[in-house]
Amino acid sequence: MAARTDAQADVWSAPVPTRPSISAGGLVARIVVIGLLVALVIGLPLSGSPDLQHHVTLAAIFAIVGISMNILVGYAGQISLGQQGFVGMGALVAANLVNTELNAADPFTFGLCLAAAVGLGAATAFVLGIVALRISGLYLALVTLVFGVVVADSVFSIEALNGHSTGVRAIRPEALADEGHFYLFCLAFVAVMVYIDWSFTRTKAGRAANALRENELAAQAFATGLVDECHLFLAPVVVGGGTRSLPDGVHLGLVLLDERRFGNGMVYLRYRATPRSP
């Protein structure tokens, strides 16, 4: 944290990070690593057997599921055990919409089934989010776990939707009939999800999620304006890690009210805190 020592300082602000320069050797090393990753992720599966392509396609699909969990589990630090319920709901509606028995689905129907799967999954998550809005930790894990179990034992057991317990036959469009082409299609979705996940951290909601992970109680108190003053002790000691003194993602106006320096190098700072928009 950067703090001004002038007692008449206006508003605290974080220092602007500078991007370190990359040497020519480092740039070449990055290009080589990226090339090897591309060859491994794209070249190897496409040159392999259809069975290998089928398995890497499943890996790409589960990677999408894992990335979707990263926002709640990774950024916000909350536990969700019902992700399979959202995935199953989307898969169920997509398979039934694209079900054409023996004929391949046309591109429009295939696109419609994808949109419907995303929409139903989002709607289900929204409803569950309303229920779980004020809980966290183990209670959130319990609610999501119950949701996954209930969905599996009720919706997924409806004979008219699950093909009478034998599964629903869904044939991909001709353009995606080849396992290699379908793998590239799924890999493109993985890239889109990675970009959305990366972009989320730079939004106001992403910063709020990080704040919840670091210190949920402090983040809520700062965000709602319950904190009038911040009293900080800065120690001249370098440590390898720890908890932030101020929660990440919360924007505050900090006016320095008092400053005291001690003989051992420690500094006491007293700020008046006022929430402000980013």
Order of helices and strands: HHHHHHHEEE
Quaternary status of these chains? single chain
How would the global form be characterised? flat
User: How many β-strands, per DSSP?
Assistant: 3
Radius of gyration: 25 Å
Molecular structure report:
The protein has helices at residues 24-46, 50-75, 83-98, 107-131, 137-153, 179-200, 204-223; strands at residues 229-234, 252-261, 267-275. The protein is mainly alpha-helical. It has two domains: 48-200, no CATH class; 216-275, no CATH class. Strands 1-3-2 form a three-stranded antiparallel β-sheet, with no helix packed on it. Residues 1-17 have low confidence and may be disordered.
Summarize the structure.
The chain has 278 residues and is mainly α.
List keywords for this structure.
278 residues; three-stranded antiparallel beta sheet; 7 helices
Write the layout of secondary structure elements.
Blueprint: H1 24-46, H2 50-75, H3 83-98, H4 107-131, H5 137-153, H6 179-200, H7 204-223, E1 229-234, E2 252-261, E3 267-275
Helix pairs in contact: 2-6, 2-7, 3-4, 3-5
